[in-house]
């Protein structure tokens, strides 16, 4: 057995189930599915106590339809666990690709997924008293449904979807650097075939590999539905075209990670009992009366105590407050007046937004409100509230993966099914891997009145039209989920990037250590216009406090001023700003005036993969200053 040290967080992304990585010995491996987790080195569960790994985040459990989440297993030796449980737990990695070749003689050999992860000698060279090691082939094949398999070497060289030959093959190079220089040969004497154009894809999604593998032009070689990460070589029905790619290409694996900030209102028994009472006609009438007046939650609790003291006497104010927060944030809805469906993921953001707009002091969430009047006009004119998040807890869940495109149209349940060999039995527990991080942050809420007037200006709407068109195009092509692009979204997203880049010079954190969380909505009932910039680490005590300090009066004004002034001139201007006016740049040409020199951040820091950014909405373009919100 070969040990592969890996951090727990890396098993969520980027090396979760179905992902490939390379060991320090140079062996390419793939992370096994969830069926194989929490076993010891002998493949047994003898000393396992799964309760030690369970964590809960009730809103994500609702979103992903699971019973609970589990921390990836950590490796413990004897003496590291007082009770002698959860010892020597592993997460298996399997050898993939299975086909290998010798760089000296070219001989190809295929090994099983469970073959030892040590380096393997070439048997052909060994017979000649040479000691040369086999290396794995550089190419694999995949399809848009997430299937992955070895490149069909034997089928390719024999130009047949079902060849009968089993003689040895050889992979050689003629000395060039292109695919045409790599040639597959077979000892049976069939004509050698180069790998030219094996990665070619037509605009309609069909591939050269599927259409030209077989010499019969009417035959199409489709995906075989392989799932090697589940430890099986069995095939599943799949009619997609097969796409060849380098095994380390960036589009071989896209982890789907869902995250949520902890908010009060856990699913404890007492809170559920209060919520059940609130469904009664009596309490519904009380709540309607209270909602007609601009009362704080504490004032509502006092009034409810007067109206229904007998019914609420068994409960504490804190429990009643949690129940009211769950109602106001949408996690428990008493009466639905708007028939428009809102996605659960959008509700998750609404819940967080409403909680971040209030002071709270709990073990996993401490928020203090800064008096906006204490800030200079640079802040108070454009922001209505500033909240200092002294402590927060974020839960990050691995919810599946895609290949080729980051969005492939598969639903939550379909993505979850790809993580297990055996379909989930209702009698068994339903879970996904996750981990928790703790940190701090700054929550900024823009001035709603000023923002609403600005985003309705004709020149602003005209400016973002190319981005709206691009978002629709990417959705039709399956490259991105359906997304509504509005001026406030692009503005808040770009502002978050500018602030992250500036904060790295002020608070001591790198850009990769900071993250954005956007709260944007134009819906009448759930209007949002805020952003959270935070940092999180695995330590339960959180981080050092430097980020919160930067949100205080006297510090925040300088950071915002510097961020906006830096945005006024990019080192790539006037080209950067002009490209924004002429079509776009960046990933999928989905940015206007934003490039690596001014508006991009590490992808770990951005929720939108550095898409839909435009400095002009912050400071105006070369011809029209009024486009910029901070010039308005």
UniProtKB/TrEMBL annotation:
Question: Lineage of the source organism?
Answer: Bacteria, Bacillati, Bacillota, Bacilli, Bacillales
Residues in domain MrfA-like Zn-binding?
495-598
How is this protein named in the record? MrfA-like Zn-binding domain-containing protein
Which InterPro entries does the UniProt record give? DrmB, MZB
| A Pfam family matched in the record | MZB
Q: Which domain of life is it from?
A: Bacteria
